[in-house]
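User: Hey, my collaborator sent me this sequence without any context and asked if I could get a structure. I don't really work with proteins. Can you help?
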Amino acid sequence: MKVLLPLIVACLFISTANSQSRRISKARYERVIKLAISKTNDAYPVVFKVTTNFIENGKIIRTVIDFNENESGARNRLKRTTISEGRRTNQYQVSPGADMNFCSDDGVSWKTTKNQCFGPVSIYGPREVETSEYSVRTKWVKRKRVNVYLEYSVFAPYEGEQKREFQERVSTIDSRGFFTTVVDTEGTLTPKKVTLRRKQYWVTNARIKPVVPPIGN
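Assistant: No problem. I've predicted the 3D structure and written it out in structure-token form, which is a compact way to encode the shape of the chain:
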């Protein structure tokens, strides 16, 4: 019994820590998130992956995966993969310097531009927030303590629409104050239907190949 007691106490402690959740103010939430953005994005080299699933009637109809390798603020490499109707397509962007982008649909033939090679995955118009709630809880991941911040917002219907929309954002921040993941779930209410899930994942101080102009350019 004396041998098992510390283990039991440890398990009870972890279980309790994992279940803690408390409301926090919008100001505190935004302060923590702003600091995490600054710290994470400046920890070059950074690998940043975003997987966005578009959902209809409970089924994924399209997936967009952005894989970013950021050597510095001005030097990065991006691969976008789109999966739809059983078809997979890739697009590539290499940016070895400010206002210098190389774009390709096959990774072989490239064209240069000062603009981004492709636009955002999702576009949002102005939305009126009806309610927002913020909370934080602590949990253990691979024996490391992390804080999980939750933002849940309800939006008024767009003009001409009847359904309200919701967005739930779950941000996991490690003991250094860096993001590890951010998961967004979006959809409509009454009845509740999920229309989008997005997961963002970071690896800071990552090992990546130097970002240089593509061969032949």
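In plain terms: The helical segments are 4-19, 26-41. You can pass these tokens on to your collaborator as they are.
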